[in-house]
Design a protein that fits this description.
The protein is an alpha/beta fold and 358 residues long. The protein has 11 helices and 13 strands. β3, α5 and β4 form a beta-alpha-beta unit. It is globular, with a radius of gyration of 21 Å. About 1% of the residues have low confidence.
Length: 358
């Protein structure tokens, strides 16, 4: 049997339709979009089409979309280039991606908000942490490990009402293409194509340009655009805009089936909330199970839930890390291409292992 793929938080397969849209950029439309001739103009038109596709998916203006190499670069630009000085205060939370936490550490005044047992931060926490010098709040929309969804609309709307001087950045890498994402209540938003069936090596950063609410990013030297990747990102956004409801329903059904079966076994604990959760996320902690026994034919993410240098900072933040060396955490990520048959195989293998362990 070919290995089954359940690691879609890490990366996804490129959709064949995305690949088809990219093909001409390798041998037909190969000009540099900055070149002032017909080859460059044709490439530039593809870049601008992709910019419009990205903007449409998140209800933004094309002029507010800047292409990057990844969500990590988008996050760094959002945090470092939008704030005038590193001495200003910024707010984030303990379960953010390392790209955010490590960038925030470059500021001299940072508040890292704790989360509850399900990984949530409340709007009350955000406002209790505000200072006169607060310049930016950065929160993840959907957590890449335990699937917790933050109410970014409520937080962003309340920030806008109470402290319109503060920029609000949203890391939407895990929700773009799977959940509805709008920039109505945020000022900066980061994404990466390979998280929703686009190519690796390309991302985007949204920065608000509304008069009176404009985010001014520091200028940077423009390198040659990754036309192939940008076209792939645009195509992935176009497909998502048409199929997001169907994809989310499909993944939610499979997610709930997996959670229901796995958590019926004694000693299996779900990490993260049962509701308000990424539609494709399952994260469980199990006692006494060796995940390597699954790895031979099922690809997923695993790690020790006990304390130590490899312990997940997210599991530590929600209090799921203890001193039991037999605890193991497993994360399964679904995609639009995950089938019911694959889920059946996963659950059969998991059940066999649990019976042997018990």
């Amino acid at each position: 049997m070919d290995p089954l793929y359940f690691d879609n938080h890490a990366t996804t397969a490129v959709d064949p339709r995305v690949l088809q849209a990219m093909r001409p950029t390798f041998s037909e439309v190969y000009g540099n979009p900055r070149s002032g001739h017909a080859f460059g103009w044709k490439a530039s038109s593809l870049v601008e089409k992709a910019r419009a596709q990205v903007a449409s998916l998140i209800e933004a203006s094309p002029a507010e979309i800047e292409f990057t190499s990844s969500a990590t670069e988008s996050i760094r630009r959002a945090l470092l280039d939008s704030v005038n000085t590193r001495d200003l205060h910024i707010i984030t939370c303990a379960t953010e991606h390392h790209a955010t936490l490590e960038t925030c550490a470059e500021f001299s005044d940072v508040t890292v908000l704790p989360v509850d047992r399900e990984g949530r931060v409340t709007v009350e926490q955000v406002f209790a942490a505000l200072k006169p010098t607060t310049a930016l709040v950065s929160l993840m929309h959907g957590n890449n490990e335990i699937g917790t969804l933050h109410d970014i609309s409520l937080i962003g709307r309340t920030l806008r009402e109470k402290r319109p001087d503060i920029w609000f950045h949203v890391d939407a890498a895990q929700t773009i293409g799977k959940h509805e994402v709008s920039v109505e209540h945020c000022d900066l938003l980061s994404m990466s194509a390979h998280k929703f069936h686009g190519p690796k090596g390309v991302g985007a950063l949204y920065h608000r340009s509304t008069p009176g609410r404009r985010v001014h990013l520091r200028e940077r030297h423009e390198s040659t655009a990754n036309v192939s990747g940008i076209v792939g990102l645009g195509a992935a956004c176009e497909i998502a805009s048409r199929e997001i409801d169907r994809d989310r329903s499909h993944m939610t059904r499979l997610r709930d089936q997996i959670i229901s079966v796995m958590c019926a076994y004694n000693g299996v604990v779900l990490n993260g909330p049962l509701t308000d959760r990424l539609c494709n996320n399952i994260n469980v902690t199990v006692e006494g199970l060796e995940p390597e026994l699954l790895l031979k034919d099922i690809a997923f993410s695993s790690g020790s839930a006990c304390t130590g240098p490899t312990a997940s900072h997210v599991l530590q933040a929600i209090g799921a890390v203890g001193d039991n060396p037999l605890l193991t955490t497993m994360r399964f990520g679904l995609s639009r291409f995950t089938t019911s048959e694959e889920v059946s195989v996963l659950l059969e293998r998991f059940g066999s292992l649990m019976k042997n362990v018990r």
